[in-house]
Specification:
alpha/beta; 35% helix; Rossmann fold; 8 helices
Length: 246
């Protein structure tokens, strides 16, 4: 059992964030599979006392699914919550702050600097950074960019996105973790996923997470709750490997 799972306990009395407690912050961006569309289960509503999320209002609240709010009628379990629980479980002194900013149905072009999605994410990240330090960026996107022409253009666009985020958030070497698309996608995401594996070769302090054997929730588009929890653990493992390599 993971340390994070041992510490997490159901409660109706949310833990209080200690005054002045700095947070290790993680920006969650991309489209619907980062936001999450699977129906939350009991463990997704279990509060970990050291995992917090920046609500739509800009206030810190204990993290439980759903943490995103891009499409309230559809939002559900994404990888961010299980990621945060693993990171908190690795170090009992760490308080994790998740910054949810993903928006379903968006292309990478919609995330370029100057666009509303990019500017909103930077604005929310800067609000969060008054309470801690940005420790990582988690990205999952690509369903809208799977055609061959888009795949070829993707690396250059993503390199620029990372460059802009690191510059605007004054975090020049912050770790960036990207996740592959589920193999259940139609048309096949094989070409996109092969491209994504090469991204860490051109972006320093970056890792790519496999989506191998992860399942959809039955709609052929979105990961199931179990798979999202596993995906979050894979993101966390990749992040921790980057830290250990320094």
């Amino acid at each position: 059992m993971l340390p994070a799972e041992e510490e997490a306990k159901p409660t109706t009395q949310p833990a209080q964030l200690p005054a002045g407690q700095p947070l290790d912050l993680f920006l969650l961006i991309g489209q619907s599979n980062m936001a999450g569309r699977a129906v939350p289960e009991a463990e997704d509503r279990t509060i970990h006392p050291r995992v917090w999320t920046l609500a739509k209002t800009g206030e810190w609240v204990p993290a439980k699914a759903p943490i995103h709010f891009d499409k309230p009628h559809a939002v559900g379990v994404g990888p961010g919550l299980s990621f945060g629980k693993v990171i908190a479980g690795e170090n009992t002194k760490v308080f994790v702050g998740l910054i949810p900013c993903a928006v379903g149905g968006t292309s990478i072009d919609q995330w370029e600097k100057g666009g509303c999605l990019y500017e909103a994410a930077v604005r929310r990240a800067k609000i969060a950074m008054t309470h801690g330090r940005l420790k990582g960026i988690l990205w999952h996107q690509g369903e809208a960019d799977c055609d061959s022409a888009s795949v070829k253009a993707y690396p250059e666009k993503f390199i620029q996105l990372v460059r802009d985020l690191r510059s605007d958030l004054n975090a020049p070497n912050v770790p960036v973790i990207v996740g592959q698309l589920g193999s259940f996608r139609k048309p096949s995401p094989i070409e996109f996923n092969k491209m994504l594996v090469t991204i860490p070769q051109v972006i320093l302090n970056c890792a790519c997470v496999s989506a191998e054997k992860l399942k959809d929730k039955g709609d052929g588009r979105h990961f199931s709750a179990d798979s999202q929890r596993e995906f979050g653990r894979r993101y966390a493992a990749a992040y921790l490997r980057l830290l250990s390599a320094k």
